[in-house]
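hey so i finally got around to running both of the ones u sent me last week. sorry it took forever, my laptop kept dying halfway thru and i had to restart like 3 times lol. anyway pasting them below in the order u listed, first the sequence line then the structure token line for each. didnt double check formatting much so if smth looks off just lmk and ill redo it

first one:
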Amino acid sequence: MAPKSYMRVENVTKKFGPFTAVNGVDLDVYPGEVHALLGDNGAGKSTLIKILSGVHQPTSGTIYMEEVERSFRSPRDASAAGIGTVYQDLAINQLMSVTRNFFMGRELTSTLGKLRMDEMDQIAHDEMLKIGIDFSDPSQAVGTMSGGQRQTLAIARAIYFGAKVLILDEPTSALGQKQQMEVLKTIKRVRARGDIAIIFITHNEIHSRLIADR
């Protein structure tokens, strides 16, 4: 039996006044696959990301999650449906620790409101280890990590908090070649889990060919 798509996009269009930013997009995304969206700046990739992530609502068209029609009115709606988006800016505070960034806004606390730091440290360590980063000190500042490691942190965070569809917005841009390869290896490890669908947004055709199934 063929696997069911985690996300299906049918004829999605987005207009801003007379300007059409996205026109009639169709997309099926399956677990255990990397689906690349390749295009130059201005091609509508960012707008499509924001539609799928609940930032913008489409002018027309339909989005299905696991065969159920969905309408995202906010990023919170999209996140609750299992969409995790890692933007280029990563939403990371470089002065804060790995653990505090991992749980940013979703910290574990005791009944008295005290942070359960030991538990959070262990979770952050274990989740990053699953996709290839082993760090000895979860209290280290994120600013001391490489760009590739910071990408891995953002990806691990999205997965831990329930992403079934992982949207990666230009994850290799502004990185050196070694760090780019680190990120591509991380994406391959996530794909190998078999339970997460990945949308890989890029303008780099070489990276698209290296990583994408479709």
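and the second one:
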Amino acid sequence: MEGEAETDCQARPRRDTHKRLEEIIKMIQIKEDEPLAPYTTFKIGGPAKYFCAVKDVDDLKEALAFAKGKGLPVFVLGGGSNVLISDKGFDGLVIKMELCGARILLEDDKEVILKVAAGEKWDGIVEMAVKNGWWGIENLSHIPGSCGAVVVQNVGAYGQEVRQTVKEVEVFDILDNTVKIMSNEDCGFGYRRSVFNGIEKGRYVILSVRFRFIKDGKPNLDYRDLKERFNGRNPSLRGIRQAVTEIRDKKYPFPQEAKNGNAGSFFKNVVLDAETYGCVEDLVKKNFGEGILSELRQRVFKEAESIKIPAAFLLDICGLKDVQVGGAKINRNQPLVIINATGKATSKDVLDLIKKVRQTVCEKTGLKLAHEPELVGFSPGEIKEVEN
């Protein structure tokens, strides 16, 4: 009958569910209203409605069960170096990946297969590879973040990309609640992308990565900074790592404090077909003259079916170094980087600066720059403003 009190049988499932969620909160120490800024290298962002750190697959399953029971969206946080979090925070559950460990699965006189947990610090693995004489990721030295996160983004630098050494990725599939092994091909790697931040975003959580390194490698010195540094010499793995570290230290500040905090390279390089690139050359010649056009031709990277223009070069010729909006500022030494110049920058400051940069570059070159870090906790409207 209408207005009739619910029976004990009807109420029991809700009580059981509530009790189960309380057990999970205690088991994996789920926190409420946890500030997220300290967990990021940008030192920007509001609180997570719920937050927990997971150290194994069982913890992850419990965390996901909690989110499902509460009807919450989930964001998986790695090293916090490639993310901008909204001043409003994240209205869901943030899961901090702290799965650690690395072990050799196979080794012979030619190669090594190394299994690395997703929460391991990336640069620690690069250091391990270099010390052991394993080639493949030495140019990716001194990049902050976790191993899982660099795979999601297919991080690259100085002519190397993570995908070149990834053999397999172990993931937890949220849709069917199972652990799976994905091949390199399954990961759908591309320029700063994979299935994990693309078509299957939100479906998989990376648990570990199996890397394949070779023992008889050759230096990759195609990029200008390294070519000038070694000037025809044939460096060792240690020499390459030291050089990359020193070069990056000059360009990418990663302080422990909030002041000058950043998310690494903020803008992606621009990849074009030959016809579109020709139109860009016309605009550059018109707006900047023959000298800058000549420099552009020296800076581009020609690949099989595309031409890559360094975004840093575009920001430089557009006079955007040191441009500041509120507490957010374009870094002078490396204009790809937006820094938290005052230590008190807001996510709105950063978004407004992104819009200013994109508008200026588009007006002068016809190109629309894309951002690299993931934007978390923002409304669809806010994201649309910096992506259209």
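quick thing i noticed on the 2nd:
The two ends are 54 Å apart (CA to CA).
anyway thats it, ttyl
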